[in-house]
UniProtKB/TrEMBL annotation, chain A:
<dbReference type="GO" id="GO:0005829">
    <property type="term" value="C:cytosol"/>
</dbReference>
<comment type="similarity">
    <text>Belongs to the WD repeat TRM82 family.</text>
</comment>
<keyword id="KW-0677">Repeat</keyword>
<dbReference type="GO" id="GO:0043527">
    <property type="term" value="C:tRNA methyltransferase complex"/>
</dbReference>
<dbReference type="GO" id="GO:0005634">
    <property type="term" value="C:nucleus"/>
</dbReference>
<protein>
    <submittedName>
        <fullName>tRNA (Guanine-N(7)-)-methyltransferase non-catalytic subunit TRM82</fullName>
    </submittedName>
</protein>
<keyword id="KW-0819">tRNA processing</keyword>
<keyword id="KW-0489">Methyltransferase</keyword>
<dbReference type="GO" id="GO:0008168">
    <property type="term" value="F:methyltransferase activity"/>
</dbReference>
From TrEMBL, chain B:
<feature type="binding site">
    <location>
        <position position="228"/>
    </location>
    <ligand>
        <name>S-adenosyl-L-methionine</name>
    </ligand>
</feature>
<comment type="similarity">
    <text>Belongs to the class I-like SAM-binding methyltransferase superfamily. TrmB family.</text>
</comment>
<keyword id="KW-0949">S-adenosyl-L-methionine</keyword>
<keyword id="KW-0539">Nucleus</keyword>
<feature type="binding site">
    <location>
        <position position="99"/>
    </location>
    <ligand>
        <name>S-adenosyl-L-methionine</name>
    </ligand>
</feature>
<comment type="function">
    <text>Catalyzes the formation of N(7)-methylguanine at position 46 (m7G46) in tRNA.</text>
</comment>
<keyword id="KW-0820">tRNA-binding</keyword>
<protein>
    <recommendedName>
        <fullName>tRNA (guanine-N(7)-)-methyltransferase</fullName>
        <ecNumber>2.1.1.33</ecNumber>
    </recommendedName>
</protein>
<keyword id="KW-0819">tRNA processing</keyword>
Length: 502, 358
């Protein structure tokens, strides 16, 4: 039992201190908490939420010990109306509302840290104080769980959610939100059915009941659960969104200096949609057709904004000229990333992340790709024509969870709990390696492992212990696995041998 | 027990239909060529548009194989193929009936727009199967009629369907006399005259258009979209499942060419106002007030978002539009509403040009 597992870093990100010059603070999320570290020394500066703060610290085993909050995130639990009333009387503020922090990002200038807390679907904006502590500027509960947080012009937040909707909202919520936007859905509380439109005996009976209910309900109208902050619906898919991107291109009219802004949205139904940005987000400019499984990540390198690299459940990446939806190249991943499994079947792979960077004196344009539940990081050079030349893969000590490129170093967060290559099996003993770093050997395309003081200190400090309740360990482990590795759930499983796409 | 018997009957019947429609059509088969019976294809009227459904759809519009849907319109040049390697058509599909159900609209429109290729999309698999068989039967019957009349009158309406063999190579063992089967519960009968186009211009596909419309139709490919008697999804919680919404209207706008029309008809007054609101029309145009929700909503709607891509077509123009008449009177739901003395609310919107970039 007592293997003393500790939560790996789910996300890592470099940000600036408040009014700082450079991104010299590393922020990482582990379990339900955020940690900040000095980028040079690796010394832990602070954590969030603070011990003893008004939001109770999610005791590392908070999820485990309380079966009530257990379960896949985002799923609605059925709550007994009587119980709900009880909770309403004494708000259960003391228990943590989330067990993980799946998104950690910052405004392009590095000034503001933006995090998503898992189960409560809150987008939280922070600044890092001089001493490295977290100052939360806002928390905004979203109607549905965001799957990506990006930034538009003026640092406005762009998110896409599990319901298929893309929203924009200001980074800092205005003190006085506009009067709650009345959506048509909210307005039409009247019963729409009439005896002209429903005819069967049962339907008529239920209509009658609804009318009766309605007349009784008139007095106590339930307060709307809608968020009260400014947020605008820009566009929507009838599908689960997996990623969004904001991009800007110069106008094709050479006499105009005005840039054209776009929103790209990817979903689990293989689509990548290219829309104009607001206020014309309802105009779809093109569609990028080519994926045959879900799309999970979009990457538009800032040094090549006309190109898009997308990946998902297909064994290849696709490089697009996205403005016209033109497929430029497909880049195989399978032969490098994963070998065949025991039965000789090629293992299904899913792209967990795509990161763009430039390296070295000659500014090599590099794309890193990590696969779900895989310890190999795949570096490529993105050629000017859009093709991608693979480098020698980088082996790490655990499944890659997140990658952050800082200065000349590639920092990789690895899973210290699960066996490398597996999203389910746990190691027999925890690994103390949370972070690894790699650098490009001068003048080559080979990457070598480097270790510095920062890594040593962070790895030695550790994160939060995973508390497993005796007797319920397997179930808890499964839930924790689900938090970190959810991509395969997006895959469609048709009849055996049946192609869904023809 | 009863359910199983019903299921068995369905299977027997459908196998029979499959055998009959795959058989070569000849004079003798005509006697047995009856429209498929709806009772064997009934399916619950609701489908979850969010689930995966094991659907088939093309990788992109350029991969769609329309040739098997419109054999009479296949480009005679076999080198003309699409990205999936299947034969191209002589013209593009440009009319879509979203949620076509049993196909009343398509069958009614086929002679009205004989030169337009039209496709009905329906998410319920059994209903789509019914419509596919219905169209097959109609086409075969028209082909035979044309053969018989062409001997006397040489003028045949274009396009020429694929030639049917003159003699039956196979006769159906269950053939019955040519008189209509009195056990047929549906009132549908074959049209006894030749129909322009011979139903070669309509087809049905099982699809979830809320997810996959862009997989079938390229930007600006369509000239007409019909949304007839959509599932009202009365509960507010289910409103995201409605087929008309601001976000979906952006997709309809993508597929419709400027000047193209989007037709809607519903018997649910509240849904009618919902449609108007989502196309940015808040002013009451109908006589009689909408329900509370509708009325309140009529005041503050702005023409922004996807609504700026559409304009409402005037009542006078609607009056003159033959398609509207078909939509009101020929659809199965339209007939049902008339039987129940319900109301029918029609709204038609024209796709405008995209505005300039801002």
């Amino acid at each position: 039992m007592a293997q003393n597992f500790q939560h790996p870093f789910q996300c890592i990100h470099f940000v600036k201190r408040k009014n700082g010059e450079s991104r010299n603070v590393l922020v990482a999320s582990a379990g339900a908490r955020l940690f900040s570290y000095a980028a040079e020394s690796g010394q832990r500066l602070s954590s969030w939420p603070l011990d003893g703060a008004d939001i109770a610290i999610p005791d590392a085993n908070g999820a485990g010990s309380n079966p009530e909050t257990e379960g896949p995130p985002g799923k609605k639990r059925k709550v007994d109306p009587a119980e709900q009333k009880k909770n309403g009387d004494a708000p259960a503020k003391k228990t943590p509302a989330w067990t993980n922090i799946p998104i950690l990002t910052s405004t392009p200038d590095g000034e503001y840290l933006v995090a998503l807390t898992g189960e409560d679907k809150c987008i939280r904006v922070f600044q890092i104080e001089e001493d490295g502590s977290f100052q939360q500027l806002s928390e905004r509960p979203m109607p549905k769980r965001p799957s990506a947080i990006k930034f538009m012009e003026n640092n406005d937040i762009l998110t896409g959610d599990k319901f298929g909707d893309v929203w924009s909202m200001p980074l800092i919520p205005s003190a006085e939100p506009r009067p709650a936007p009345k959506t048509p859905a909210q307005r039409s509380t009247a019963i729409a059915a009439t005896n002209l439109t429903v005819h069967t005996a049962r339907n008529l009976k239920s209509l009658e009941m609804q009318i009766n209910m309605k007349s009784q309900q008139q007095e106590h109208k339930k307060a709307s659960e809608k968020p009260v902050f400014d947020h605008d619906l820009l566009l929507g898919h009838v599908s689960l969104l997996t990623d969004v991107a904001f991009a800007s291109l110069p106008s094709p009219d050479p006499s105009s200096t005005k840039r054209r802004n776009y929103i790209l949205s990817a979903d689990k139904d293989e689509h990548i949609r290219v829309s104009r940005s607001r206020p014309q987000a309802h105009i779809i400019e093109s569609q990028c057709f080519g994926h045959t499984a879900f799309v999970s990540k979009l990457c538009i390198p800032e040094w090549a904004p006309e190109l898009l690299i997308s990946g998902g459940g297909d064994p290849h990446l696709i490089v697009w000229k996205w403005a016209t939806g033109e497929l430029l190249h497909t880049v195989p991943l399978a032969e490098q990333g994963s070998e065949a499994d025991a039965e000789g079947q090629p293992k299904e792979i899913a792209v967990r992340g795509i990161w763009a960077a430039t390296r070295g004196a000659d500014s090599q344009r590099i794309i890193f790709v990590a696969l779900e539940g895989n310890p190999t990081l795949l570096p490529f050079t993105l050629e000017p024509n859009g093709s991608m030349t693979p480098h020698k893969p980088i082996q790490t000590s655990g499944n890659i969870l997140d990658v952050e490129v800082h200065m000349n170093t590639v920092l990789v967060s690895v899973d210290c709990i699960r066996a490398p290559g597996s999203t389910q099996e746990w190691r027999s003993a925890t690994s103390t390696t949370l972070l690894e770093a790699f650098q490009l050997k001068q003048g080559t395309t080979e990457w070598e492992s480097v270790s510095d003081q920062m890594l040593g200190t962070i790895n030695a400090t550790g994160t939060v212990p995973v508390g497993l309740t005796e007797g319920a360990e397997e179930k808890e482990k499964e839930a924790l696995n689900g938090v970190l590795y959810g991509l395969e759930n997006l895959r469609k499983h048709g009849w055996a041998g049946e192609e869904t796409v023809f | 027990m009863g359910a199983t018997a019903k299921k068995q009957k369905r299977e027997v019947y459908r196998n029979k239909v499959a055998a009959a429609t795959s058989a070569e059509v000849g004079d003798v088969a005509l006697a047995d060529l009856k429209l498929p019976q709806k009772k064997y294809y009934r399916q619950r009227a609701h489908a979850n548009p969010f689930s995966d459904h094991l659907l088939k759809y093309p990788l992109s519009p350029a991969h769609m194989d329309w040739s098997k849907h419109f054999p009479a319109f296949v480009n005679p040049d076999p080198t003309q193929t699409n990205l999936a390697g299947t034969r191209k058509l002589l013209r593009d599909v440009e009319v879509v009936d979203i949620g076509c159900g049993f196909g009343g609209l398509l069958v009614g429109l086929a002679p009205v727009l004989p030169d337009s290729l039209m496709v009905g999309m329906e998410i319920r698999v059994q209903v789509t199967e019914y419509l596919t068989n219905r169209i097959k039967a109609l086409r075969a019957q028209q082909a035979l009629k044309r053969q018989m009349t062409s001997t006397s009158t040489p003028s045949t309406p274009a396009p020429e369907p694929s030639p049917a063999p003159a003699t039956a190579s196979e006769t159906n063992p269950n053939s019955k006399p040519a008189t209509p089967d009195p056990t047929v519960d549906d009132s549908e009968v074959f049209p006894n005259s030749l129909i322009p186009g011979g139903y070669q211009n309509i087809t049905a596909i099982r699809a979830n258009t809320m997810k996959f419309l862009p997989n079938f139709f390229a930007r600006g490919q369509l000239s007409k979209i019909f949304i007839c008697f959509p599932d009202p999804h009365f509960k507010a919680r289910k409103h995201k499942a409605r087929i008309v919404s601001e976000t979906l209207n952006a997709e309809y706008a993508y597929a419709l060419r400027p000047g193209g029309l989007l037709y809607t008809i519903t018997d649910v007054e509240e849904y009618h106002y919902w449609i108007l609101r989502h196309f940015g029309y808040g002013t009451p145009v109908e006589k009689g007030q909408g329900p509370e929700g509708g009325e309140e909503g009529l005041e503050e709607v702005k023409r922004e978002g996807s609504a700026e891509l559409f304009e409402r077509v005037s009542e006078e123009e609607i009056e003159k539009d033959e398609c509207v008449r078909v939509m009101k009177d020929a659809t199965e739901e339209g007939k049902k509403v008339a039987r129940n003395k319900g109301n029918k609310y029609v709204a038609v919107f024209r796709r405008k040009e995209n505005p300039e970039w801002v």
